[in-house]
Fold:
Amino acid sequence: MYQLYFDNVQMEHFGTIRQQIRALLHFPFHMALVLLMEGINQFVIWRHAVEVLTGVFDPIVALPDNATATEYFDVVNQTIYDTLYIFWPTTNDTSIIDEIGNALYNISPAANATGNVTDDTFIESADSLVLELFKIVVEDFGFSAPGGDAVNGLGFNDQLNAYYSVFTLIFGMYFHMLY
Structure:
């Protein structure tokens, strides 16, 4: 917008003192408009991402407490299929798919029937599935989930909090600038 006002101004001589003062005073206003529009854009994207995440995990949350392992597996398997069908990893990284496949196998009734999967492995695999689906959806919306040393060694809740801290940082900075 600033460019629309001042793009055709000659650089050799920039008008009268009044024009120079007006240009100087308008610059912060236009910067505030740009930041406002960028913040609104990020907010709309974040809101849409939250709605999609809610839709992704609703079938799992809707399972009754007394669901059988087969019912749980079927719902998780369908949720993973539906999510990957829409939000295939943008990096086309097959290691993510392999990790999801291994975790899905660990929670399958077939793996549990052999007795090779402990309760800790089952919980770790279920947590891994949730985190990977969360990251795939969030990264599809253009946000980068923290990785590497930032989340290595953290438990499920701490990793999820680390992912949400990205959004807290973005929106906290934006809204802090407004007030």
About this structure: The chain has one domain: 38-178.
